Amino acid sequence: MSDASRLEQPDRPWVMRTYAGHSSAAASNALFRRNLAKGQTGLSVAFDLPTQTGYDPDDEMARGEVGRVGVPVAHLGDARALFDGIDLAAANTSMTINAPAMWLLALYVTVADEQGAPREKLAGTTQNDIIKEYLSRGTYIFPPGPSLRLTTDVIAWTVANTPRWNPVNICSYHLQEAGATPVQEVAFALSTAIAVLDAVRDSGQVPEDQIGRVVERISFFVNAGVRFVEEMAKMRAFGRLWDEITRERYGVTDAKQRRFRYGVQVNSLGLTEAQPENNVQRIVLEMLGVTLSRDARARAVQLPAWNEALGLPRPWDQQWSLRMQQVLAFESDLLQYPDLFDGSHVVEALVSEIVDGARAELRSVLDMGGVVAAVETGYLKSALVASLAERRRRMEAGNDVVVGVNRFTETEPSPLTASGANHIEQVDPAVEHAAVESVRAWRARRDPDAVAAAMDRLRADAAGTANLMPATLECVRAGVTTGEWAGALREVFGEYRPPTGLSAAASAGEAAAGSPLARVRERVRATATDLGAARLRMLVGKPGLDGHSNGAEQIAVRARDAGFEVVYQGIRLTPAQIVSAAVAEDVDLVGLSVLSGSHLDAVPAVLDGLKAAGRADLPVVVGGIIPADDAETLRKAGVARVFTPKDFALNDIMDELVTVVREANSLA
Q: Signal peptide span per the entry (predicted)?
């Protein structure tokens, strides 16, 4: 066979990562080292929710969340332990951190300084995209204005001091998980990139003729679903529009600086609890969407593990996902050929369709004042909630097939899950106690005068217009903690609660007579009549720091469509706030959503609070990623029902909620 069509030099493989971090800095460091020894070529650090939202391990808000979905990093000592023995001058480190991105970058740079690593050699990425946090992931802290200022300051500082670092990673990944269509994902992400570039340009911190240096350091982080042909076309569309925007809006003439640079994690929320072995082929197909097209190939890839719908992956599970990448890169001939799709009429038509739709949607966002205005009015959130609701309806109707979930559900027992709870990583509850003691000991050892001086400078600079990175670096060196740094900025900037998007989300409208939704509506109406109430009232609560609100929002939307009056106050509530709302609103049912693994702490706290408030009779149901053993524990504690990802049919869930209310009130 002729080799005439092959590249003279095969492409280099993309950077291969696994998203890792849990329990403690020392345990995560050991995991990093093992993964690097197995051929991983980049680190991708998962931080726990207290770190992501600016709380120390001993804060009340951190209860039950420390070390669960990532590694806790409360101060410089933790950062030293996290990267111990890893040469940061040679590493490529991605950090999934947003509101406190400046803080974690300052910790990283300080550890590198202590190692003697030249700052100009530091390579990696801080995600630092706060806009999508307001829309989908929920780890925001400050209002949009101050948040964009922090992003701008990080970009300006890195361009001058760490020129190989990607200071912002515009993240469309969670937009897709929140419901975004390919058109919406491209348009909303690019509108965020425009807001960031406009803010940097208007800040005056980077000379106008150096805007190309800013553009070339901006990267993107995208989602790749199982419709891999569409995903491949989406990435080509992304690149085409990015080139157009940076050339026409910002005058960047160097084509190399305009190149669309992106990393990817394939779709974690598309993985299923039912027949989890099917997740392996889903992950492989999703990887193809961002690797097949040479002209739009990902620069870095991290894959979830087969059991992520069940809990925290073990090191062996992560190794399996790494080996998937290595087989594709080193055993197949993918990297030996030019772009496989050049000249394809089918692909070109699909790319053009996405480009045209995204350009129109982007224009709409810009016409309403840009992405910040679109967040503040609730337009973007409502659009995502509506899109996700429509996606759920298609799946429930069977129009979108999910193998093992809504079709081909007959199955043999899976040997992968035969070991019970041992098929996922277990976080020792003692981890949180150790982190609490550690941060208190750290505070006791430091120089209080140096801490006070650094904090005073941070507050003063935040109240003014100075770049906040120098003051943040001083805080790191003085021993300030994550919670103290974020707390000082909370004092100056305030906190923010964006619109939930439920009020503007489209209703399902009138249900056809005899349809599942119509039958549930009739049961809701009849039960309200039996109770002598105008309507059944349901509180949907998100306790703790878990910001993944998609499931809770879809439950709230469908409950409203089913005839419930829904009380939903958004994410990040304390158990006391949930109890207070349940009592004040006189609801008939409390539904709690927990995806972070903190259910054994958060849910009993709500149950105890209701009992103390004299409402032990109020039924509580729980939904989330909850292992079977934990579900049984919750039921014994008094939870009426536990729903997990395998319970995908929302009308069936609504029907069961009515049954719960009837049982709690001794109705036949």
A: none
The Cα 561–Cα 569 span in angstroms is: 18
At residue 289, does pLDDT exceed 60? Answer: yes
Task: Give the burial class of 229: count Cβ atoms within 10 A of its Cβ; 0-12 exposed, 13-18 middle, 19 or more buried.
Answer: middle
Q: Phi and psi (nearest 5°) for 74?
A: -105, -15
For β-strands 43-46 and 92-96, DSSP reports them as parallel
Mean pLDDT of the chain: 93
Length of the chain: 668
For residue 93, the SS3 value is strand
The whole-angstrom separation of Cα 510 and Cα 66 is 45
- Please say whether the dihedral angle defined by the alpha carbons of residues 432, 580, 388 and 503, taken in this order, is positive or negative: negative
| DSSP states of 329-389 | IIISSGGGSS-TTTT-HHHHHHHHHHHHHHHHHHHHHHHTT-HHHHHHTTHHHHHHHHHHH
User: Which pLDDT does position 503 carry in this prediction?
Assistant: 60
Q: Are 42 and 15 in contact (CB under 8 A)?
A: yes
CB 32 within 8 A of CB 86: yes
The DSSP symbol for 99 reads T
Using alpha carbons, select from 106, 104, 94, 103 the residue that is nearest to residue 261. 94
CB 593 within 8 A of CB 549: yes
352 vs 333: CA distance, rounded Å? 28
Dihedral Cα 210, 215, 217, 221, nearest 10 deg = 170
Token pair recorded at residue 399: 């129009």
With beta carbons less than 8 A apart as the criterion, state whether 53 and 104 touch.
no
| Cα gap 14→325, rounded to integer Å | 9
Mean pLDDT of 205-221: 94
* Alpha carbon distance 274, 649 (integer Å): 13
What pLDDT, on a 0 to 100 scale, did the predictor assign at position 514?
A: 77
Cα distance between residue 95 and residue 171, in whole Å? 12
Residue with the two structure tokens 């919406």: 184
Kind and range of the H or E element at 207?
A: none
DSSP code string of 533-581: -SS-EEEEE-BTT----HHHHHHHHHHHHTT-EEEE--S-B-HHHHHHH
Question: pLDDT-based confidence at 1, cuts 50/70/90?
Answer: very low
In single-letter form, the type of residue at position 583 comes to V
Burial 561-585 (b: 16+ CB within 10 A, else e): bbbbbbbbbbbbbbbeebbebbbee
Return the H-helix or E-strand segment holding 656: helix 650-664
* Per-residue confidence (pLDDT) for residue 311, from 0 to 100: 81
* H/E segment holding residue 407: none
Where are the strands (E) in 136-268, listed by range? 165-166, 168-171, 218-224, 262-266
Q: Can you count the helices (H) and strands (E) in the chain? A: 25, 15
Which of the residues are catalytic?
19, 173-174, 542, 546, 548
For 604, half-sphere exposure in the C-beta direction (CA atoms, 13 angstrom radius) is: 11
The DSSP-derived string for 456-483 is HHHHHHHHSSS-SHHHHHHHHHHT--HH
